[in-house]
Each structure stands twice: as structure tokens, then as C-alpha cells.
Request: fold
Amino acid sequence: MIAVIGGTGIGNRLQQEAGLGLRIPTQFGLARAKRLDWAVAFARHSEGHRVGPQAVDYPAIAAGVKALGCRACVSTAAVGAVHKNLKPGDLAVCTDFVDLTQNRPSVFASQPVHTDFSQPFDPELTARLMKEVPTSERCVYACTSGPRYETPAEIACLQSVGCDVVGMTASSEAIAMREIGVPYACVCIVTNYAAGVSDHNLSHTEVEQQMSRSAERVIAILKKLAADFV
Reply:
């Protein structure tokens, strides 16, 4: 089974197709999910996008995924392109990340456990995902705290250290999933050019519209990947 953590738009679409809702108590809090005929879907931002990236309970979601016995987790993430080699509507599979968040909850918040991140995303799962997603061999995800968008100077800094896309969730998920022991991969949907790369101001409406346009294509990819885990 694959647990699919839905991003903006795609998460809502999965919920609409879902059957009975799941309430999963964990040591970190309650995780909520929807059972599909081909996977289990967690909407990180809650129904209606009511929870910002800084307030998502990533350890609870990771613990919920593990409690359900899911063999792997593939998430979707809306991102801004840091360079123009990626454009709105493109898909990219994460291979590394730069975590710039602050005070995000950790599975080991009260324990000195040092987890290896030499391979930030599960290599086997990432390789499977890359077979379904036409993408480059490298996509470095920069994770900022949000919920505000980044400044042009911040994006210039990300460009200078080799980042390809910017978002607000994937590194926190990757950390929680690795700490809890669930193989994790992430496919990014480029929804916009980042600040300073874009020629106009950013808006969440633009993000939602692009995610909606990409939903059918991404769901088809995830369903095909999920078939490997039946």
C-alpha cells in the first residue's frame, strides 16, 4: 500500500473520491486520512486548506502512515521554480533538500537521536517514481517556513546554493517519515516561478489553479505506482 499525502488541490480531489474517513490516534496527536480503493490519502493542510505549512503536525501524519501499515509514502508538493529551466505545469521528483524551516516538530524532539540523511529521499521509491515522471536526474527542494512567500533576495540565495524549487512542506515530511521508518518520495508540481524569477506578484490562487490543472496527470502516475505495492 502507498500512503499518498495530497498537496493543495490534489488533496481535495482525493478526498472527494474517498470513502470512509480514518481517525488515527498517535503519540503525537490525531492523524486523519481517507481510504481510497488504491491507497490511503492524508491531506496535510486539512480539508479546505485550513492548516498552514508551519502548523502541520508532520510527526502525527508520519506515525499515522506507519500505524496503518503502509509500505511506502509518496507525497505531492506545490513548488515555485527557482530557475526558468522548470516552468509552471512541469513535474519534478525530489532528490535532495535544503531545510530552512524553524521550530518544526520532530519525532525525536525530546531525544538526542541523530538520523542519517545522506539519501534524503528513499532511493528505490524515488527511482520508481522517476520512471513514471519525465524529469531530470536532480531536483533540490528548498523548504522555507512560510506561510509567506519568499523575497527576491531569498530566492537569489537559493539559486546560489543550487536549489531548483522552493516550497514549505517536503523536507519536514521527509524528516518525519525517515525518523518514523517509512520509505518516502516526493513529486513536485511546479505551480509558478518564484519571486524575482516571476514577472508578477505571487498569489495562492495561481498555485491552486495550476494544481487543479495538474491533478488528473499526477493522480494517474500515483495510481500506476501504487499498483506495484498491491
Q: What stands out?
A: The beta strands are 2-6, 21-26, 29-35, 40-43, 72-81, 91-93, 96-99, 140-143, 165-167, 184-193. The chain has a mean pLDDT of 87. The helical segments are 10-17, 58-67, 123-132, 152-160, 170-180, 204-226.
